[in-house]
Write the structure tokens for this entry.
Amino acid sequence: QFCSMVTDALAPDGVTWNSVVTALANRGLWQFAIQMLSSMPSRRLPRNEITFAAALSACDSVRQWEPAVSLLGKMLDTQVQCNAITFGAALGACQVGGKW
């Protein structure tokens, strides 16, 4: 899939992965951004507030509130610190999705 295409071309580390997730998010490709974020643990790559913020922003930009709320839950489960950016993106997705 998409993750395989990226890893075949790169020797990824956490910074590389964050950059790819951010680029996908900036293009509104929320499903790919979430797929990349979700695949990080199996590749032994750290997920942090930057990775989650990018994926949450992607959800916000396309009004996908359900995946945004799910991502917040994953942040809490993995003990990644939520911050104003991550909460803001999740709330934005809920607001534009009519769930505020």
